[in-house]
């Protein structure tokens, strides 16, 4: 894919899709390499997808990136790349908009191993929560987290989500059954926390 060249410099001073730590941009077909290399982190894949994928291939990452590029809605998901304000690609985040009738949504997040624990995931989540609640008029964010995914549990609590329930021994992976923990955040809770 040929690189776009612009005459003017982009000024991000008043840009909705960034905060003090990260900027979201449309996923690009050229982001396939990021996807490919992060797919070798089996522990992260197990925590995110509750399973072990088959060995990664460049072709599969290219096809996946082609499917989700340019903010295409793929299975009601819109996918963004997460970059630092210096333009370093640190992650991927998507918003699941499959239940307008009930006003609920979900968010999926993946941060590259070397960039975890620096607040990038939490900052990107804040942008999509704001978008879901304040622009899409949605009422509830819901997510399930695999038992043992301490990073995700800590992040969701920091964002103000409440644990709503546990499905005991609901997910089978790595030779045993794991609990699936559900968290939720309503718009009212969000507004009380993030005024």
Ordered list of secondary-structure elements with their pairings:
Elements lengths: L21 E5 L5 H7 L3 H8 L8 H11 L8 E8 L4 E11 L4 E8 L8 H16 L4 E7 L3 H9 L3 E12 L2 E11 H7 L2
Helix pairs in contact: 1-3
Question: What would you note in describing this structure?
Answer:
The chain has 195 residues and is α+β, with helices and mostly antiparallel strands. The protein has a single domain (22-193), classed as Gcn5-related N-acetyltransferase (GNAT) (Aminopeptidase), CATH 3.40.630.30. It is built from 6 helices and 7 strands, in the order βαααβββαβαββα. Strands 1-2-3-4-5-7-6 form a 7-stranded mixed β-sheet. It starts with 21 loop residues before the first strand and ends with a helix. The mean pLDDT is 94.
Spell out the key features of this protein:
195 residues; alpha+beta; Aminopeptidase; 7-stranded mixed β-sheet; 6 helices; 7 strands; 30% helix; 32% strand
Task: Give a brief description.
By secondary structure, the chain is an alpha+beta fold. It has helices at 32-38, 42-49, 58-68, 120-135, 150-158, 187-193, and strands at residues 22-26, 77-84, 89-99, 104-111, 140-146, 162-173, 176-186. The protein contains 6 helices and 7 strands.
CATH topology: Aminopeptidase
- SS class: alpha+beta
Q: What is the CATH domain class?
A: Alpha Beta
Assembly status:
single chain
Count of strand segments: 7
Helical fraction equals 25-40%
Written as H for each helix and E for each strand, in order along the chain, the element string is EHHHEEEHEHEEH
CATH architecture: 3-Layer(aba) Sandwich
Measured on Cα atoms, how large is the radius of gyration?
A: 17 Å
Largest sheet: 7 strands, mixed
Walk across the major sheet and give the strand order. 1-2-3-4-5-7-6
Low-confidence stretches: none
Residues in β-strands, percent: 25-35%
Keywords: Transferase
GO molecular function, one term: acyltransferase activity, transferring groups other than amino-acyl groups
Domain N-acetyltransferase: 22-188
InterPro entries: Acyl_CoA_acyltransferase (IPR016181), GNAT_dom (IPR000182)
């Amino acid at each position: 894919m040929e690189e776009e060249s612009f005459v003017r410099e982009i000024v991000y001073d008043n840009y909705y899709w960034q905060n003090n730590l990260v900027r979201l941009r449309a996923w690009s077909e050229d982001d396939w390499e990021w996807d490919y290399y992060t797919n070798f982190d089996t522990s992260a894949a197990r925590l995110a997808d509750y399973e072990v994928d088959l060995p990664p291939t460049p072709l599969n990452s290219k096809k996946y990136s082609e499917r989700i590029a340019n903010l295409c809605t793929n299975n009601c998901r819109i996918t963004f790349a997460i970059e630092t304000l210096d333009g370093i690609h640190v992650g991927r985040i998507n918003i699941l908009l499959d239940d307008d009738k009930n006003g609920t949504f979900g968010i999926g997040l993946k941060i590259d191993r070397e960039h975890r624990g620096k607040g990038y995931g939490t900052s990107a989540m804040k942008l999509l929560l704001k978008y879901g609640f304040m622009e899409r008029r949605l009422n509830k964010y819901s997510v399930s987290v695999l038992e043992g995914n301490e990073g995700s549990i800590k992040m969701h609590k920091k964002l103000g989500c409440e644990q709503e329930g546990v499905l005991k021994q609901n997910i089978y992976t790595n030779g045993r059954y794991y609990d699936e923990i559900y968290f939720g955040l309503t718009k009212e809770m969000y507004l009380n926390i993030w005024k």
